[in-house]
Specification:
Aspartate Aminotransferase, domain 2, 3-stranded antiparallel β-sheet, Aspartate Aminotransferase, domain 1, single chain, 7-stranded mixed β-sheet, 2 domains, binds pyridoxal-5'-phosphate, 395 residues, alpha/beta
């Protein structure tokens, strides 16, 4: 089969022309212009690293914090940068003062790295991880809300809720869940790894205790760029994972909070410095900017999901309203192959024989395998048709 075309906007990215790239969801992909900007920042640092870190660094930090806080409507005074969503989730969980018998809610769609962190802290404290089972074929958002709310008890202290789940690509009704759990005195740690640039995020409106989110996925910033937002009433109990110079700083509470989180030790800060550039560059690629990007990518993923289901003769799982720019379907061959360090055999076959980069998730919690497509501005509908044909030949 000849390789399918990409969208005309793919000219802004450096993706390999010989690969059908349908996995924006795992690590994002950064446009050439943004990488160029990152290179310029690196040059600036290396011209005089001392001058940069002494005089310029904090100005860039503030500029990026303000730009991002506008984009996700967050309180800039509660917003800090971390390297990735996993680090944000770790920061919150490791700061909790868990008592024996306390409970933390997760779901059976929770990203494994975050689930591991929850298990780590609950085990250390003699607390418990409560796993809410959510069927892949849910009929409505209400079903999910009820399942989560029904698992709350008086010892529930926190719920780790996804904006969009990773293996199953399901948009959670997270705003309503946060609202209802708050009324039950349960804090929410929102895992917004798939958030900014994928769906509308309004942090002030949702008012979650904690939000950890990535910029390097759907804002297309360079890798290592993510944020943690901590609500005002939780800030005094939150310390960064790396205790550094800020710990001995004696200033007002806000300055100390910013100092502690903004200086984890010497590192390359250029990924988050590119947030303003990335937001602006992407916005300029299409008329109506980010609203159009979110709408267009979602529409393509919904179409792509439909094409795959039709080709494989399976039902579309949950309603379109719960689909964003990532969408998963269950593979007809549900059997989970034996673990191999080389990865899932179907993933490898699709890559090696059809040049398709698409993830297959063997998901033990559901005893099945999912294939997940992504759509970004560089993708074209033909790529999903091509995947569907390839899948049909393989499964
Ligand atoms: C739901 C979810 N949470 C957390 C993460 C972790 O993101 P990162 O590897 O950037 O820390 C991912 C990554 O795909 C994810 O999908």
């Amino acid at each position: 089969m000849n390789l399918p075309q990409r969208s005309s906007l793919s000219k802004y990215w450096q993706l390999d022309e010989n690969t059908v790239f349908l996995n924006h969801g795992s690590f994002g992909a950064t446009p050439t212009e943004v990488l160029k900007k990152q290179g310029e920042y690196r040059q600036k640092i290396e011209k005089d690293p001392v001058k940069f870190f002494e005089r310029d660094y904090i100005g860039y930090w503030k500029e990026s914090i303000l730009t991002l806080s506008k984009f996700i409507n967050a309180d800039p005074e509660g917003l800090v940068f971390v390297t990735n969503a996993t680090q944000g989730v770790n920061t919150v969980l490791k700061n909790l003062d868990l008592k024996r018998g306390d409970k933390i809610i997760v779901t059976d769609h929770t990203y494994q790295a975050c689930r591991n962190t929850v298990d780590f802290v609950t085990k250390s404290a003699g607390a418990e991880t409560v796993v809410v089972e959510i069927p892949f074929n849910v009929k409505s958002e209400k079903e999910i809300i009820d399942l989560i709310l029904n698992s709350v008890c008086e010892r529930t202290v926190l719920a780790l809720i996804d904006t969009v789940t990773s293996p199953t690509g399901m948009k959670m009704p997270f705003e309503e869940i946060i609202n209802k759990l708050e009324k039950e005195n349960v804090d929410v740690l929102l895992d917004a790894a798939h958030g900014a640039g994928l769906i509308e995020l309004d942090l002030k409106k949702m008012n979650a205790a904690y939000v950890a989110g990535n910029c390097h996925k759907w804002l297309c910033t360079p890798k290592g760029s993510a944020f943690l937002h901590i609500r005002g009433d939780k800030k005094k109990d939150m310390r960064p994972l790396s205790i550094s110079h800020g710990a001995s700083f004696e200033g007002n509470a806000q300055d100390k909070f910013e100092f502690e989180f903004s200086w984890p030790g010497t590192y390359d800060p250029t990924s988050w410095m590119c947030i303003p550039k990335s937001i602006q560059h992407m916005e300029e690629m299409v008329d109506n900017g980010w609203n159009e990007i979110i709408r267009r990518n979602r529409k393509l993923a919904i179409k792509g999901r439909r094409i795959l289901c039709d080709e494989l003769g399976i039902e579309v799982p949950f309603p379109d309203e719960m689909v964003t720019a990532i969408a998963s379907i269950e593979l007809p061959d549900k059997e989970i192959p034996p673990f191999s360090i080389q990865g899932d055999p179907l993933h490898n076959k699709l890559l090696d024989e059809y040049a398709i980069q698409v993830p297959i998730f063997p998901w033990e919690a559901h005893n099945t395998r999912y294939i997940r497509i992504s759509s970004q501005l560089y993708n074209h509908i033909d790529e999903y048709e091509y995947l569907a044909k390839a899948l049909n030949e393989c499964v």
